[in-house]
Amino acid sequence: MDIFISKKMRNFILLAKTNNIDRAAEKIHLTASPFCNSIAALEDQIGDTLFTRKDNTISLTKAGQEL
């Protein structure tokens, strides 16, 4: 597996577990912006949205649950 894909997947798993961008990013010593960029890159790579974002709530989409 490509190292960049594994980092994206790690970030996906962290966000899925915490449901909080700041907390997930903090765990790997990143700020929210590059963390969100990695999630967006994974979504682009997969071709589907993995999380819904509404106000301060983050939850997995059907595609995110399947992943």
UniProtKB/TrEMBL annotation:
Keyword Transcription: yes
Record keywords: DNA-binding, Transcription, Transcription regulation
SUPFAM superfamilies for this protein: Winged helix' DNA-binding domain
GO molecular function: DNA binding; DNA-binding transcription factor activity
Domain (HTH lysR-type): residue spans on this chain: 1-61
Alphabetical list of Pfam families matching this protein: HTH_1
Entry-linked PANTHER family: HTH-TYPE TRANSCRIPTIONAL ACTIVATOR ALLS, TRANSCRIPTIONAL REGULATOR
Family: Belongs to the LysR transcriptional regulatory family.
This protein's name: LysR family transcriptional regulator
